[in-house]
Amino acid sequence: MWLHADAEIRDRVRAAGLDRDGLSRRYSWSIPSPGDIAWIAATAGGRGVVEIGAGGGYWAALMRAAGIDTLAYDPFAASELNGYANRAYTAVEPGDDSVAAHHSDRALFLCWPNNNDAWAARALTAYRGDLLIYAGQEAGGCTADDRFFEILEGGWERAGASADHVTYVGVPCRLTAWRR
Fold first, then answer.
1. What is the residue range of 160's domain?
2. pLDDT, tens only, 6-16
3. How many domains does the chain fold into?
């Protein structure tokens, strides 16, 4: 594991953009496997997906390539100046958490919502559909805020998890489905 390597090696890894932060900004803060994408397709059951906070659209691009009708929104375009997503993989429309209110016919997909930020809770509150697909940590972790998890506990039931989900070393992450 490179984290325990000599300082010179660690510096070269970071300079090449191969550290977790560099990989997260380039691709995604949660790693999608082919099994995850297949699981999302099966879980959505033929309906479309709306991703709020899509960043550069890496997950959306993979879902679209798999034939899942996917809409992707983020208030900030991917760019080298964006601290969360520096590369665009597919079209991501401008839009914030309020967009979830307009897509109750789709599954809501939230991937690694910002830690201690209220946008994921606002998106879940605005959403009127019945299926949430969530990639992130559990309550008390480094994703979303306490209100998001309170909303989940108050009206949603966990309906499954991808058996094929992988994570960055030392960074627990789950891909789960929730129904109400």
1. 2-179
2. 777 656 656 65
3. 1
